[in-house]
Amino acid sequence: MPVLDWLGKEKVINHHLDVPFRFLDKKFSVGASENKIIHGDNLLALKSLLPEFAGRVKCIYIDPPYNTGNEGWIYNDAVNDPQINRWLGQVVGKEGEDLTRHDKWLCMMYPRLRLLQKLLSSDGAIFISIDDNEQANLKLICDEIFGAQNFCSCMIWKCKSGGANDVKGIACDTESILVYAKNISACQFNKDTEAQVTTNYNHMDENGRRYSLDRLDKQSLGYQPTLDFPITGTDGKIYVVEHKNPSNKVARWRWSKETVEQRYDELVFKYPYVYTKNYEKIDGAIPRNLLVEERFGRTRSGKTELAALFDKISPFAFPKPTKLIKFLLSIATDKNSIVLDSFAGSGTTAHAVINLNAQDGGNRKFILIELNDYAESITAERVKRVGGSFDFFELGAELFDDDGFINAEVSREKLFDYVYFMETHKHFSPSDEEFLLGVDDGIAYYFFDDEELNFDLLAKIRTRAAAYVIYAANCTLADSELDEFNITFKKIPRDIPKL
Ligand SMILES: C[S@@+](CC[C@H](N)C(=O)[O-])C[C@H]1O[C@@H](n2cnc3c(N)ncnc32)[C@H](O)[C@@H]1O
After folding, report:
1. What spacing in Å lies between the alpha carbon of 181 and ligand 1's midpoint?
2. Which domain holds residue 239?
3. Of the given ranges (24-33, 38-47, 274-283, 354-363), which has the lowest mean pLDDT?
4. Fewer CB in 10 Å around end: N or C, the chain?
5. 370 pairs with which residues across the strands?
6. Tens digits of residue pLDDT in 235-281
7. Same domain? 366 vs 444
8. Which of 75, 131, 316, 382 to mutate to test the pocket of ligand 1 (most atoms within 8 A of CB)?
9. Where are the beta strands (DSSP E) in 15-137?
């Protein structure tokens, strides 16, 4: 498989593993829900989401900066955002100064896509909007990260119509949306229930179901002698494949002899042709990759929609239309799915989740991440204005300090929750036992910050359980003593689970 190389790649290829874990600090809530809007660099925020959401996100939609080289929009479209530049300097080092904008963009995207891949559920899919500036590069790194076998589609969305008469060369009216499954064999897309079908279903069966008739013989499939045989019709007549030029046979039946025998009752005989019934698909059509109809919206309609919410002036240059994102969600989610957008911009994805839930009575949840300070004034504000509920977070303290010890700034409750969640996938709730994290599946979990695990410490334990996991600074009990009480000792900070 071809693999893309670029300057700085070796520095970022495993960088997602080095990203420090930070806690998320809730700043305020609008209504009550499980939706989240996070202000901060998505690299850090995605890492923060890993303990709770790894393997749980059904649909990711992202619309990263396209790297057009045009800066000065409300967001930086190149990778020259000061925060990203600082990050590149730290990760790639001195050679980072020589990177082209494509190298920089790839360095920025690669570790973020790695984390996104971990968050996807086994039946989930990611949709990535992109234009021709980086589409080819993006495809290659996605093949590497998600697996080329998990590539589902390159959708083509008509974002513009008309205009562009002053363009030199060929005007581009489209953008791409790359679609990858976490695991193609487990990922099933829903039908497109609003697809406009051109077939004329001009027959009706005894149950009132409409259908069209498709000829069983086809000129275009390629000749095969085994698919060229006579069939006796229900009227006793003999039906044969029609060859327009018998000396150069190209036609054949679509069904084999066995299939004709097995499904004979489904055939319709109208001399000289045999037909099959093609029933109207009332639950929708297979989604297609060409998104050109008005029902997918245009960039212009995205802007108008946003302007209507912000005193007639769109605070964002190129928001996506909610119709487009709603369509993607409709084919890639069920009613209880979690949806993630880690380049949230004006919050279109949350708006689309809210609209789709309103349409089908769903209870999808969204998680948005936005780097820029307008995360509150535009992203969250838009979601609030369209009636959405959410908790708003900032990135909080790192779990470990620079020397690898537990960061003194981290509250005990957050630390306990982290350790207990990593052990059990359940949240910590305080009890009247100071050092008890919780009891799960017969195992009691304790966390004694600076203490030594010895008999005096065991005397403090009040909960009776089949087994114990005890975190402590060190342990002076012998292995046989640990075994006798069914205790697993975990050393702080060494054995605190890492991501
Ligand atoms: C093209 S815009 C997304 C527009 C969005 N789809 C909409 O409809 O409004 C890209 C967004 O990603 C944000 N962004 C860029 N780098 C980021 C990062 N490292 N972490 C989080 N957000 C980032 C930018 O600030 C910008 O708002």
Report:
1. 22
2. 203-279
3. 274-283
4. N
5. 39
6. 999 999 999 998 999 999 999 999 999 999 999 999 999 999 998 87
7. no
8. 75
9. 22-30, 36-39, 57-62, 120-130
